[in-house]
């Protein structure tokens, strides 16, 4: 449905976007992430035809934006971050105006306008002047103009900005429904929204795509360790000693609040603390060592292999019941920070992301006034 082929936008003495290359199929909802100034807005404006790329090509359903701009734009619905509204017009007058601009036949306009009004919860507001509406309702009207002509491709820039929680849920459900028959490119700063809506995510940083993948697979591709949070019932020191003695395990860190000094330590300090705790059994009374409480730990594999089965059998062999076991993975927030800043995440490296850039610079994006 959408093909962006080696697209660059260059400005004199300023960076725009460089060799952006990706495609989207019909029915995909793709999240588009990046820090301020990374090139999101520039890329979206080029896709919609508001800007011409310096290099590369953009195809909308096989139509070149450069060669057939009018036909290509007819297949696109665009909601910019600031909705393109005329505040002195009423809601119904504005939607009729947009219907005329979009070339919707007069005999179809009423049904189409009624449909989007109902779909976006604008009933009872048709005669109201737009300037008198709340920001949430203005956002709904902006989305209404984007879908009024039933486009194949929707470009949505911060579509839930300014909405209350109930409205956010409704708009997200609408986007899911639209994604069943349309292609949706969704820019947002609300990272949980990506997990809630998108089946794919693109991250752009300093004008380049640094990640392209499915949200549920990103953690595995980005992580350089395999970690398991484990809760085991039994004597603390003995459990810790057993875990540390396993050849499959490279590190054990207590997660319980009572773990002495464990909270807030750096990796180096935690490693030292682990070494101290490993000898603690020699210093505590035998009665205390036999306390049958629950021990919560974070276990790191010696390599990236799954160690859950080995942990299960070792604890079962020693007759220490496992009360909980969960594979830990990077959150989308962690991945975003890892790719767009210089700060290394705890327990992670900057590798594993292919062409990932880890620069923290946030260059100012220079685009013409829209």
From TrEMBL:
Residues 2-231 form the ABC transporter domain. GO terms for molecular function: ATP binding. SMART domains: AAA. It comes from Paenibacillus gyeongsangnamensis. The keyword Transport applies. InterPro entries: AAA+_ATPase, ABC_transporter-like_ATP-bd, P-loop_NTPase. Residues 361-370 have a biased composition (Basic and acidic residues). This is ATP-binding cassette domain-containing protein. Pfam families: ABC_tran. Keywords: ATP-binding, Nucleotide-binding, Transport. Belongs to the ABC transporter superfamily. Residues 343-370 are annotated as: Disordered. PANTHER family: ABC TRANSPORTER, ATP-BINDING PROTEIN.
